[in-house]
TrEMBL record:
Gene name as annotated: Agmat
Protein name as it appears in the record: SPEB protein
Gene3D superfamilies: Ureohydrolase domain
Gene Ontology biological process: putrescine biosynthetic process from arginine, via agmatine
Family per record: Belongs to the arginase family. Agmatinase subfamily.
Keyword hit for Hydrolase: yes
GO MF annotation terms: agmatinase activity; metal ion binding
InterPro entries in the record: Ureohydrolase (IPR006035), Ureohydrolase_dom_sf (IPR023696), Ureohydrolase_Mn_BS (IPR020855)
Length: 194
């Protein structure tokens, strides 16, 4: 729960302990905007603020499932300029993400990694209970491939954000979110699974 703004203070605390961290970020949006309604801190800016404060190891940031409308003709330029790897949703359509996650594991190495999962990274057919749904997103199976693909990384924290149950009377979004959080707990270091 909570919007993506919560990741910013969490990463401040994580970086205080571990230094700049790698980031596996699943989302429909890059969340690297500069301002909204004159404010520098809102759910569309956390990762720009993190870059400005040196909280991220930008060579180890991957953003998966990015898509949707934009106010900019080149919406991923800021991310690329920082050294982020941006994996648009269309590069994920109709295929397994296991090979992608093998590449991500190499990119992350053995240094600290944080996972931040915005539920709108999934297609609203599966997770309509979010404030900024975007069509043509990831499937739940791909979400599992991403999270399970993080097993063995030096994960120092994770979150799942932007769940808005009032937008989904079926309860499926909350169910999916709870299961994804469970999967994240299972890939934390030193957690034994069968």
């Amino acid at each position: 729960g909570g919007d993506h703004t919560i990741t910013y203070p969490i990463l401040q605390a994580v970086a205080e302990k571990h230094g700049p961290v790698g980031l596996v970020h699943v989302d429909a949006h890059t969340d690297t905007g500069d301002r909204a309604l004159g404010e520098k801190i809102y759910h569309g800016t956390p990762f720009r603020r993190c870059v400005e404060e040196g909280l991220l190891d930008c060579s180890r940031v991957v953003q998966i499932g990015i898509r949707g409308s934009s106010y900019d003709p080149d919406p991923y330029k800021y991310c690329r300029d920082q050294g982020f790897r941006v994996v648009p949703a269309e590069e994920c359509w109709s295929k397994s993400l296991v090979p992608l996650m093998a590449e991500v594991r190499k990119q992350m190495g053995d240094k600290p990694v944080y996972i931040s999962f915005d539920i709108d990274g999934l297609d609203p057919a599966y997770a309509p209970g979010t404030g900024t749904p975007e069509i043509a997103g990831l499937t739940p199976a791909q979400a599992l491939e991403i999270i399970r693909g993080c097993k063995g990384l030096n994960i120092v924290g994770c979150d799942l954000v932007e769940v808005a149950p009032m937008y989904d009377v079926s309860g499926n979004t909350a169910l999916l979110a709870a299961n994804l959080l469970f999967e994240m707990l299972c890939v934390l270091p030193r957690v034994k699974t069968m």
